[in-house]
Write a structure and sequence with these properties.
Largest sheet: 6 strands, mixed
Number of helices: 11
Distance between the termini: 48 Å
Number of domains: 2
Structural class: alpha+beta
Strand content: 15-25%
Helix content: 25-40%
Radius of gyration: 21 Å
CATH superfamily of the largest domain: Nonribosomal peptide synthetase, condensation domain
């Protein structure tokens, strides 16, 4: 496995998608659709194992495939995935006869937000085919194991180019001391014993979503960058120095699929996303759009000058530096504007919400959205590790995000 895949294998991080469906749900058809996924994506039947001190991804046809769990514990769907265990979990729970909640978790070492949403779309296409008897339009089956994306980028740069890049980057971040959310659940820098995460969600109405989208357009940035600004300002307000202008650091997720030749299709299960750090000054009165603009300017430069690609190519050498640079937050854009899920008549899905489980001492923020008829609804999900942060901190940050959203709507 590559450096990035190995890091996520060590952490056991899954990507989680959840949704509620209303109407009659044929559980046998859903179970068959889950089983179909392994034909299309053999990697889902694989296992991550530790061999000779390194993580490796292996296929073994003799191992039992994961199956749909009926009535399982939804609270445990995002628990870390241990080595030599299935890479996929799918749980459905009946709320009542006409209402079910579906959740699935796929290992982040073999997937990213793009492919996880595509996998969910494929699942429902298969389900609809089993219910209606109409052949579905599915992605072509994959063969073997995916090629790590780092291999696509390593050949683009010489050793001298990467050495020069690493030296410049080390000098740039050496003296950066960002302000971060205090880790009240930790003791002397060691995470507490409580496992799991605090999840807080701010679900916006279609009207609120349109207002926020309009506010982003009015300032010339994307909704993703506006949410970056909202998250950083909200976190700043919960630090020990909320009245001061302080340096903050942020990981921003960047999709690499279009930067590979030929481009990777959305349905290909592979980790094809990168976390690019940015460093910005944040004050208590800064407008979220202004903060988002600073983040966007840095990300644009990183893309244009090849920093993003060099970070991927040099990731094995950067691993220690990345661990030593404190982060104030990470923000991931999981917005999906794909067509409505192909469901059989009488079955309607609520919003599909997604996140990944953080184990790091900083909040992880996820932006999702779904088309509902002709409207669009946004959701901001906050994940905070219970080993680092308390429930009170999670509540306080959620309230700060809600207040900052209102601030973002002001000129």
């Amino acid at each position: 496995m590559s450096a990035s895949e190995g890091a996520l294998a060590f952490l056991g991080v899954p990507i989680v998608l959840t949704q509620t469906v209303n109407g009659p749900l044929d559980l046998d058809a859903l179970e068959a659709a889950v089983d179909d996924l392994f034909t299309l994506h053999p990697v889902l039947a694989g296992r991550i194992v530790l061999a000779d001190g390194r993580f490796a991804l292996r296929l073994d046809g003799s191992l039992p495939r994961p199956r749909l769990v009926r009535g399982g514990d939804l609270d445990q769907i995002g628990a870390p995935l241990q080595p030599d265990t299935p890479l996929l979990r799918v749980v459905v729970r009946e709320q009542d006869e006409e209402r079910h909640t579906l959740a699935f978790a796929v290992h982040h070492a073999i997937s990213d937000g793009t492919s996880a949403f595509a996998l969910g779309d494929t699942l429902w296409r298969g389900y609809t085919a089993h219910v209606t008897g109409v052949a579905p339009l599915l992605p072509p089956p994959t063969i073997g194991l995916p090629r790590p994306v780092e291999e696509h980028f390593r050949a683009r740069f010489s050793d001298a180019e990467l050495a020069d890049f690493l030296a410049q980057r080390a000098a740039k971040v050496r003296d950066v001391t960002p302000v971060c959310l205090p880790t009240h659940a930790a003791t002397h820098g060691v995470p507490g014993e409580e496992n799991g995460i605090h999840i807080r969600q701010l679900r916006l109405t279609a009207e609120q979503s349109e207002q926020l989208l309009s506010a982003a357009r009015a300032t010339g940035i994307s909704i993703n960058m506006l949410v970056h600004g909202i998250a950083l300002r909200a976190i700043h307000s919960q630090t020990d120095t909320p009245d001061e202008v302080r340096v903050m650091t942020c990981y921003s997720t960047i999709d690499l699929r279009r930067r590979i030749k030929p481009p990777l299709p959305p349905y290909q299960l592979v980790l094809a996303a990168s976390a690019q750090e940015t460093v910005v000054d944040v004050g208590p009165h800064d407008h979220p759009a202004a903060i988002g603009r600073h983040v966007w300017d840095q990300l644009k430069t990183a893309v244009r000058d090849g920093t993003v690609e060099k970070c991927i190519a040099a990731l094995p050498q950067m691993a220690d530096d990345m661990l030593n640079l404190p982060m104030s937050a990470s923000v991931s854009n999981l917005l999906t504007r794909t067509p409505l899920l192909q469901l059989p008549p009488g079955l309607v899905s609520g919003p599909v919400e997604g996140w990944a489980i953080p184990s790091a001492p900083f909040p992880a923020v996820f932006l999702t959205g779904n088309e509902i008829g002709s409207a669009y609804a946004l959701c901001i999900t906050l994940n905070l590790s219970r080993g680092w942060f308390t429930a009170e901190q999670a509540d306080g940050l959620a309230g700060a995000v809600e207040r900052t959203v209102h601030d973002a709507l002001r000129p």
